[in-house]
Specification:
25 strands, 2 domains, alpha/beta, binds 2-deoxy-2-amino glucitol-6-phosphate, seven-stranded antiparallel β-sheet, 590 residues, Rossmann fold, Glutamine Phosphoribosylpyrophosphate, subunit 1, domain 1, 22% strand
Length: 590
């Protein structure tokens, strides 16, 4: 997803902007650019590809002595990934960078063309610059409010106005933007990782506020020029949490962190389940998220329905937000999101809140939009997750759902104390599983030259397959499909070819033989099968097994194996593991 950085101060503006963009690289992008300004001019330099290519171009350019600047990494939405469409964009007296999607850009563009504006790019961003410029008379604040009143869509904007040499401007709707406070310098950025080298004091810009930044001051201005008192948050990210710490990729580092962050996340609740929200009064639960977060929710659905008997759905946010959802007063909507900035998940949350429905969120980034707007925030303690493919955050989302289901079901369980002990053992068991990384390299060796793979299972095992399939496909580009094991023979089995990898997940004693039969079906058609199960349900010495623990915890043992298989396979295929093509870490646009 696009990244935005802005700086005004005495440091080398180019260096601050590039440092910020490099910290945002993990968000995914296909072009980048900066705009430098001083009293006399505005200089724009852009390039396609990685930031180091932009940096080379900048270093070959005679730069102005800048006093402020804005910068951007673009993840193409309107218009292809080329230099023309890269940000910043300049129209008239306005130069800006933008994250988001302007849904009514064509309508606005027509109006501006009729006013005599000309456009050089295919982007919605250039239309925004022209729109602001068209309203600019002697007060940029009025011009900004008039412009955003015309806009339908999402935006985070960082703006230079030619007439105002002392300030940068920033404003947002749906897309995140925050301000950084320095000593005789100030900043803005899409997320705080871009600024932690320079400050630990932040202001999270709210919708409807315009930030006016000078070297010595940040003003927040509301509609009709009201001054808004900023709420300053001090946030420190450990240096250690930001780098790869010697691992080759962030994805591997984050998988290897799982025992520690599991312990950190679940321990407080194991000591006191009352710290978890009591969901027993709800009559139905809608779990709503995107991607892996939705698959974590799918596991939550199976566990809550099976062990707590509360009707539960797990739905994709981009569908949920537009469908006619059946609520009653006793409905709970649970959002799941690592970043807390996924546009569709935010929209689903806001839709539920508009209907007066209680919302809860399992979220990692404590300062995110979802964390700040939801009724009941529940935090995982994953720390910053940089790799685009989520691993530790997904595992912790599942862990919280397991604990929620366990709390709901506890009084009806035969052996709650044993299950509690299983939870206590999990971080150590996961560590032991991760230590067997060589086993998973061996599996990767057997599949990395395939172009297709299947993951099959029943009930919660199918939900695990969904994430195993997504993980492998998004980092290795092998086309993977998760399928309900019993459903294969209704069409999909026609795709099974000789040597095609099929992973079978078996954790439920009552479903073991059924899934095993399905695995035999594909084996008889030439598939190369890999069974991942528990030592108690083992079907042969070939199986990959994990210690047999309760249904609430065994999923936490299987997932790291699938994550490492995906990682090792992608490595053998020479993929860009931390920044897979076309993907973004946080999809802040629809
Ligand atoms: C997972 O590996 C993907 N990066 C993606 O599916 C992600 O889970 C999804 O975009 C949701 O992101 P969120 O958790 O930040 O809302």
């Amino acid at each position: 997803m696009c990244g935005i950085v802005g700086y005004i101060g005495k440091k080398n503006v180019k260096d601050v902007l590039l440092t910020g963009l490099k910290a945002l690289e993990y968000r995914g992008y296909d072009s980048a650019g900066i705009a430098l300004r001083n009293d006399d001019e505005i200089q724009i330099i852009k390039n396609t590809g990685r930031i180091k290519k932009l940096e080379q171009k900048i270093n070959q350019t005679k730069l102005i002595k800048a006093t402020s600047g804005i910068a951007h990494t673009r993840w193409a939405t309107h218009g292809e990934a080329n230099i023309t469409n890269a940000h910043p964009h300049q129209v008239g007296k306005i130069t800006l960078v933008h994250n988001g999607i302007i849904e009514n850009m064509e309508e606005l563009k027509t109006k501006l063309l009729n006013k005599g504006y000309e456009f050089k790019t295919e982007t919605d961003t250039e239309v925004v610059a022209a729109l602001i410029d068209s309203y600019l008379d002697n007060d940029i604040i009025d011009a900004l409010y008039k412009a955003v009143d015309d806009i339908v869509g999402s935006y985070a904007l960082g703006i230079i106005s030619e007439d105002d040499k002392e300030h940068l401007y920033a404003l947002r709707k749906d897309s995140p933007l925050l301000l950084g406070i320095g000593q005789e310098e100030n900043f803005f950025a899409s997320d705080l990782t871009a600024l932690t080298d320079y400050t630990n004091k932040f202001i999270f810009l709210e919708e409807g506020e315009i930030a006016k930044l000078s070297q010595n001051k940040i003003e927040l201005i509301g509609a009709n020029h009201t001054q808004i008192a900023p709420e300053i948050k001090e946030i420190n990210i450990e240096e250690s949490e930001k780098g790869k710490q010697g691992y080759e990729h962030f994805m591997l580092k984050e998988i290897m962190e799982e025992p520690v962050v599991l312990e950190k996340t679940i321990k407080p609740y194991l000591n006191n389940l009352d710290l978890l929200p009591d969901l027993s009064t709800y009559k139905q639960i809608h779990i709503v998220a995107c991607g892996s977060a939705m698959y974590a929710g799918l596991i939550g659905k199976y566990l809550i329905e099976k062990y707590a008997g509360i009707p539960c759905t797990a739905e994709v946010a981009s569908e949920y937000r537009y469908k006619n959802n059946i609520y009653d007063r006793k409905t709970l909507v649970i959002l799941v999101s690592q970043s807390g900035e996924t546009a569709d998940t935010i929209a689903a949350m806001r839709e539920a809140k508009k209907q007066g429905i209680t919302t809860m969120a399992i979220v990692n980034v404590k300062t995110s939009t979802i964390a700040r707007e939801v009724d009941i925030p529940l935090f995982i303690e994953a720390g910053p997750e940089i790799a685009v493919a989520t691993t530790k955050a997904y595992l912790l989302q599942v862990a919280l759902f397991s604990l929620i289901a366990f709390k709901l079901a506890k009084n009806n369980l035969e052996n709650p104390d044993k299950i509690l002990k299983d939870f206590e053992k999990i971080p150590r068991i996961v560590k032991e599983i991760l230590d067997k990384r060589e086993n998973y390299k061996e599996i990767a060796n057997q599949i990395y030259q395939n172009e297709n793979a299947f993951f099959i299972g029943r009930q919660m095992d199918f939900a695990i397959c969904e994430e195993g399939s997504l993980k492998l496909k998004e980092v290795s580009y092998i086309h993977c499909e998760a399928k309900e094991a019993g459903e294969l023979k209704h069409g999909t089995i026609s795709l099974i070819n000789k040597g095609m990898p099929v992973f079978g997940i078996i954790t439920d004693e009552n479903l073991r033989d059924k899934t095993l039969a399905n695995i035999k079906e594909v084996e008889s058609r030439g598939a190369k099968t890999f069974i991942i199960t528990t030592d108690k349900l083992k079907t042969s010495d070939k199986d990959i097994t994990v210690p047999n623990t309760s249904a609430f915890t065994v999923v936490l043992e299987i997932v790291p194996i699938l994550q490492l298989i995906a990682y090792e396979t992608a490595k053998l295929r020479g993929c860009d593991i931390d920044k897979p093509k076309n993907l973004a870490k946080s999809v802040t646009v629809e």
